[in-house]
Specification:
By secondary structure, this protein is of the alpha/beta class. Helix content is about 45%, strand content about 15%. Helix 6 packs parallel to helix 7. The longest helix has 17 residues.
């Protein structure tokens, strides 16, 4: 389903319905993950901004560990993300936010590159953070130099440029909690979690 957001017509229909549902349910503040598709994610941000929804929208980044039609080339992902940041930083209501999907789908190079963009544009980060035991274990396997999932983002320079939003944050270690608190980060839960 996510790959279908490459089609701007499909993305527009889904995002219009999504935004209408947010408003109909009284949600006027939201932090939203888009997809890897820059055009679709830009439409989402513009539409939320136009309708007065305050919050953040992120173009998702992932360069490994996903199905082929959802993977990005590392340099291309960084280039697309920088163009997205250049265009939308300073928006009135809805702002861009860096959105590495989660550690198992990002290489060190991608995360470090996103950390550099965060510093350059003063932009925060949202990511799925210790959302499952599998994710935390996989992150530890892929990044053995880090003591916990959250430290991966800290070492990449992604936690000191703006708001830090850890989606789900269901199975944190004490070190995950300590690092998130150090940067005044937020654990963001959704009802489905």
């Amino acid at each position: 389903m996510e790959a279908r957001f490459a089609d701007p017509g499909f993305a527009k229909a889904v995002y219009d319905a999504f935004i209408d549902d947010l408003i109909a349910n009284g949600t006027m503040h939201a932090c939203v993950f888009g997809t890897i598709h820059t055009e679709a994610t830009a439409y989402l941000l513009e539409s939320m901004d136009r309708k007065g929804i305050k919050g953040f929208v992120g173009k998702v980044n992932m360069d490994r560990g996903a199905q082929e039609d959802l993977l990005e080339d590392t340099r291309g992902s960084l280039r697309e993300t920088e163009a997205f940041l250049e265009k939308y930083s300073g928006n009135r209501n809805t702002s861009p936010i860096l959105t590495p999907r989660f550690a198992p789908t990002c290489t060190r190079e991608l995360l470090r590159g996103l950390g550099g963009l965060g510093k350059k544009y003063g932009v925060g980060m949202q990511t799925h953070l210790v959302e499952s035991r599998w994710e935390a274990e996989q992150a530890g396997t892929l990044f053995p130099e880090c003591s916990c999932d959250t430290e991966i983002y800290e070492k990449a320079g992604l936690m000191d440029n703006g708001p830090v939003l850890g989606a789900h944050f269901i199975f944190p270690s004490e070190e995950d909690v300590r690092i998130l608190q150090k940067y005044d980060g937020y654990a963001v839960h959704c009802p489905d979690s």
